[in-house]
Design brief:
Protein name: Alanine--glyoxylate aminotransferase family protein
CATH class of the largest domain: Alpha Beta
Number of helices: 14
Strand order of the largest sheet: 2-10-9-8-5-3-4
CATH architecture of the largest domain: 3-Layer(aba) Sandwich
Family: Belongs to the class-V pyridoxal-phosphate-dependent aminotransferase family.
Oligomer: single chain
GO molecular function: transaminase activity
Structural class: alpha/beta
Number of domains: 2
Keywords: Aminotransferase, Pyridoxal phosphate, Transferase
Cofactor: pyridoxal 5'-phosphate
Bound molecules: pyridoxal-5'-phosphate
């Protein structure tokens, strides 16, 4: 049997992830593989740790990627600090709050949730009130909720957690590299980012950072280091005051020994993915965090102007809109999936649908990382208008692109970057 050469279509990816990979990252991925303890490689590991600290805006010692998709980072962080019966508060304002809840429950936590309407975020005062009532060990919260396109303010919640000696862990998967996220200044104890969104690196690694408050817990749960564990070791481990972390793959006490100068063998590092992450981080730092955040806002403005000029309305409260995801209400009587399909088939553009109560009600358009470019915004607006006309929607013909062009020319010059 023979198979053809790998030949994927070139797409314009305007989803909330995965997005288009920066060509520089693709080139870095063809760099020859070296052994994971080769000094040439351990140097790259150290560089990635240093670059991550800049991007996370932290002085934390620990900042490294977990091999696996973003949820592997979330699960590594949570399973390494949750001991069975620990109370955790998860404020839910979209799909990924449910993911946090599920991870915590699977690791034996007593999870308390609070919910707000999808399309909104929490007033920090309400979360703080709930922390005072529940007295959790951990608050686990999403920063940029891609399912609803909302951005939860974190600073006040972080400060309250620190004051009450509660650990604050955050899912920054969709916000890191696209919108401001200050780990130290906002009192975040543990944070997980994503590669496949605003960093424009393929999915497959989860950069994380955590401080000494978390390190202390992890260290207390460390396995005895004997290389192999006998039945007797395992029996004793089950009886310890602070039980060992139940996952081997995601045990941060072992991962940190691999990422420290000790370089204790754990897994076989995904060398090619680390090359990709290194290049993605280098691009972010070359552009500069502030420039990059401004660039995301700049293209978001043009997209929103175009959509509104076309006569479409946006979903969700504008005061907490996530700059990297724009949610559009699907006009009454329109088959949202048919529109998405036509965009893909006729124009090679991918936009996203949503989940749960929002399925069939909104489209989500991502403006993230390398995908967040002027030509992509203009192409998407033009194509969407054409497809909507084909679906019988009475749009304000011709206005979307003009509004977007106006938005671009109002500012005259694109921010540094792209
Ligand atoms: C906010 C948020 N958190 C977590 C995840 C889970 O990431 P992954 O699918 O890479 O495991 C996603 C994925 O889209 C996300 O948008």
């Amino acid at each position: 049997m023979t198979y053809s050469d790998l030949n994927t279509p070139l797409r314009t990816i305007m989803t909330p992830g995965p997005v288009e990979v920066d060509p520089r990252v693709l080139r870095a991925m063809s760099t020859p593989v070296v052994g994971q303890f080769d000094p040439a490689f351990t140097k790259i590991m150290n560089e990635v740790m240093e670059m991550l600290r800049h991007i996370f805006q932290t002085k934390n010692k620990w900042a490294f990627p977990v091999d696996g998709t973003s949820r592997s980072g979330m699960e590594a962080l949570l399973c390494s600090i949750i001991e069975p019966g620990d109370k955790i508060l998860v404020p839910i304002f979209g799909r990924f709050g449910y993911l946090l809840t599920e991870i915590c429950e699977r690791h034996g936590a007593e999870v308390h949730t609070m919910e707000c309407t999808w399309g909104d975020v929490f007033d920090p005062a309400d979360v703080i009130k709930e922390i005072k009532r529940v007295h959790p060990k951990i608050v686990a919260l999403v920063h940029g909720e891609t399912s609803t396109g909302r951005l939860q303010p974190l600073e006040k919640i972080g400060a309250a957690c620190r004051e009450m000696n509660v650990l604050f862990t955050v899912d920054g998967v969709a916000s890191i590299g696209g919108t401001d996220l200050k780990v130290d200044e906002w009192f975040i104890d543990g944070l997980v980012g994503g590669t496949q969104k605003c960093l424009s690196v393929p999915s497959g690694m989860a950069p994380i950072t955590y401080n000494e408050r978390i390190e202390e817990i992890i260290t207390a749960r460390k396995k005895v280091e004997r290389g192999i564990s006998t039945a007797e070791d395992r029996k004793q481990e089950l009886e310890r005051d602070h039980p060992i972390i139940r996952s081997n793959y995601l045990d941060l006490s072992m991962l940190q020994d691999y990422w420290s100068s000790r370089r204790l063998n754990h897994h076989t590092e995904a060398t090619t993915m680390l090359y990709a992450l290194r290049e993605g981080l280098r691009i972010v730092l070359e552009e500069g965090l502030e420039n990059r955040f401004n660039r995301h806002k700049f293209h978001e403005n043009a997209l929103v102007s175009g959509l509104e000029a076309m006569g479409l309305t946006l979903f969700g409260s504008p005061s907490c809109k996530l700059p990297t995801v724009t949610c559009v209400n699907i006009p009454e009587g329109v088959d949202g999936e048919s529109v998405r399909q036509m965009l893909l088939q006729e124009f090679g553009i991918e936009i996203a649908s949503s989940f749960g109560p929002l399925q069939g009600k909104i489209w989500r358009i991502g403006t993230m990382g390398y995908s967040c470019r002027k030509e992509n915004i203009l192409f998407t607006l033009g194509a969407l208008e054409a497809v909507l006309i084909r679906h019988g929607v009475r749009v304000h013909t011709g206005r979307a692109l003009q509004a977007a062009l106006d938005s671009y020319s109002l500012i005259h010059r694109e921010p540094v970057g792209q």
